[in-house]
Specification:
Length: 277
């Protein structure tokens, strides 16, 4: 069962923020996918700075390069030009040093492994001892509310529970950075609401940096400290909006005029770019 909003919200007063450093620095980055039908300019002249502890959402229409930008940060795609630093090192070093955890749109759990074994996989690859693995698994399955599901297989869990297991798996190596590509896109609206609140709680407890891809304006407003609005052909950043809302938000905030004002600002930025198109 999902925890209620009341039980999951952490008071802002209980959180002592760490000093900020530059977690991601992107300088004039472009990426062209060559294809036999002509080059695809997926990203064009991207400049972006993301500070540690921030929750940054990429929003934009389908095909604007949100996933590609996330994959470049993760060193799963190579930029054609420009510079990128992740926590002061290049993206390849950040990947090899397992600086980030990556959560995909689908939970991507291995069906022949139970939840404990799925969470263990990245730690097995990293060479952690079974005792260290179990300690981390217990900690993070508890954090996502799956403490009683170690021995269950993915097909025995709901879609939301599977996605929580994949978040636990990404957290097990305790990365400073969480890269999330539309992790709740396939969930129904009620489950998605709960997952958003759960994610805010985890983010607040762990003080990680989160980079989050979404199509949903409401989700971006509910979660983010900063919203990066992107436009397609070629994919570029049209606006970075710093949220005036508190870091920790409740679902009730969606009725607040400030929430609507921010959603409207994002909508206008998106519509403006479409008008130009
Ligand atoms: N491996 C690839 N080879 C060629 N083109 C690609 C490749 N990956 C992505 N593209 C193209 O790059 C552009 C950006 O794609 P990307 O998946 O990053 O967009 P997106 O904003 O995440 O879209 P969506 O919201 O639909 O997931 C699109 O035109 C896409 O077709």
């Amino acid at each position: 069962m999902l925890a209620t909003e009341e039980t999951t919200i952490v008071s802002e007063a209980t959180v002592t923020e760490k000093p900020k450093r530059e977690m991601i620095a992107i300088d004039d980055l472009s990426l062209i996918f060559p294809s036999k039908d002509g080059d695809v300019h997926a990203l064009s002249n991207i400049n972006l700075s993301i500070k540690s502890g921030d929750f940054v959402s990429f929003i934009g229409p389908s095909g604007c390069g949100k996933t590609t930008l996330l994959r470049v940060i993760a060193d799963l795609e190579k930029a054609t030009s420009g510079n990128l630093k992740v926590n002061g090192t290049d993206a390849q070093d950040a990947r090899l040093n397992r600086l980030y955890g990556y959560v995909f749109q689908a939970a991507a759990l291995l069906p022949w492994r139970n939840i404990q074994q799925n969470c263990a996989l990245p730690m097995e690859i990293s060479g952690l001892s079974p005792a260290q693995q179990n300690k981390q698994i217990d900690k993070y399955l508890k954090m996502v509310g799956l403490q009683d599901f170690h021995k269950k297989f993915p097909w025995q869990l709901s879609g939301g529970m599977q996605q929580r297991a994949s978040i636990a798996r990404a957290l097990c190596l305790n990365p400073d950075l969480l890269l999330m590509d539309e992790p709740f896109g396939a969930l129904d609206e009620i489950t998605r609401d709960h997952m958003n609140i759960e994610l805010l709680r985890i983010w607040s407890e762990t003080q990680k940096t989160v980079v989050f891809v979404t199509h949903s304006i409401d989700e971006a407003v509910l979660l983010s400290t900063h919203i990066v609005v992107m436009s397609p052909r070629p994919g570029r950043i049209v606006k970075v909006i710093e949220s005036p809302l508190p870091r920790l938000k409740t679902l009730a905030l969606r009725d607040d005029p400030a929430f609507h004002a921010l959603a409207s600002e994002i909508r206008t930025a998106l519509a403006h770019e479409h008008a130009i198109d």
